[in-house]
Design goal:
single chain, alpha/beta, Rossmann fold, 3 domains, two-stranded antiparallel ribbon, 14 helices, 40% helix, elongated
Amino acid sequence: MENNVENQVYGQVIPNAYNVPVQPTLQSVVTNVGQVQNAVPQSVPVTPANNTVTNTEKQELYDYTGLSILKMYGEDLTAKQYITNPAIARDLEISKAIMILLTPEKSALLVGKAGIGKTSIVEGIAYRIINGTVPERLKGYRVVKVNSASLVGKVQYHGKEEMIISLLVEELKKTDKLILFIDEIHTLIGSKDGGPMDLANILKPAIDRGVVKIIGATTDIEYSTYVVRDRAFLRRFDRVDVVEQDIPTTVEVLMKSLPKIEHQTGIKFKYNEYVTKLLIESIVEATSEFKRVYGLGAMYPDISFSVLSGAFSQALYQDKSYVEMIDVYNAIKNSKRIYPDSRVKELAAFREKFKNLALEEGTTFPIVDISEIDDPVDFY
């Protein structure tokens, strides 16, 4: 132990848990002569699976030669098992996106507010491919999702530094029948030093081959701030607007998504379809536009899903095998995405709406005033 501390003090290279030489940086203060507390390396790079760093080269960047960027950073949405249709009531947006994908040298760009369901639309396309309900030209395609943050940066490749996005394009040139979904694609337009990354031209060889299609996703604000400035990007991507769903549609989405949530949690709603729908309607009404805290993610259906998931969490916490009215009541009470005064009013309406059913099953809804309501989460 003393030797290790001595090695760190004098800046010698020591092996870490990954068997990769690392030059450590002291993060603590020497309290006594010869004694160092909490001397640990400042950062430890993670070695990807099946990747090695040769001792002779002592590389600081790992050699990605022979590794698949798609497999390392991507998620195959066509390999997932879907309990229900992930894109309920999004047929119009899916049809528009598919029409663009069938157009030569064109890719689709989904534009909509955060939490509105852009990713679910892409999952809906993957769901249709799995079920064979897409045009013949798209049958057999894979849909792979990559996060834009994973594509920013450089890696070691054949002894040289290469951009990850460039390696991805080289891999796409050799890949057939692929739909690449890049979430938050606006982060790949431009760079920190002011020089444009020119994503459209980087991806052009892959798009021009025709066997690789691309779907991007961004918000309205990022589209106006970053995307519209890149004319080359706009020439190759056609916009698909994703609007917020209304109250009846959101109720439909939640009702049809219940089997998925029940499968994930292992518990179900206690009531028949009629009463369950009434409870879902109360959740959706409680999260309507002027009652929700303004901020990221405060959109239908995402905000209603958060309350519904909270009801299941309430039941799971009490080791129940089903979700009851009181669980939905408490989920609305504890939702920090709804303004406190709105929660008090919605809970009062909830008590009135279900008072007869509560009387039948012996449930008591505690009266809640605003002093018992927690402050909402700050989204800013």
